[in-house]
Amino acid sequence: MKIAIIGTGYVGLPTGVGLAEFGNTVVCVDKQEEKINALKSGKVTIFEQGLEDLFLKNLKNGRLKFSLSTEEGVKDADVVLIAVGTPPHPVTKEADLQYIYAAAEEMAPYLTGYTVVATKSTVPVGTGDEIEKIISNKNPNADFDAVSLPEFLREGFAVHDFFEPDRIVIGANTDRALKVMTELYKPFAGKTEILAVRRRSAETIKYASNAFLAIKIHYINEMADFCEKAGADIFEVAKGMGLDRRIGNKFLNPGPGYGGSCFPKDTNAMACMGRKYGASLSLIEAAIRGNDLRKTKMAERILNMVKGVSEAKVAVWGLAFKNGTDDVRCSPALQIVEQMLRSGANICVYDPKAMDNARKILGDEVKYAQNAFEAAKDADVLAILTEWDDFAEVNLTELKAIMRSPKVVDLRNMLKSKQPQLQGFEYRCIGLDS
Question: What distance in Å separates the CA atoms of residue 386 and residue 319, rounded to the nearest whole number?
Answer without folding.
Answer: 6
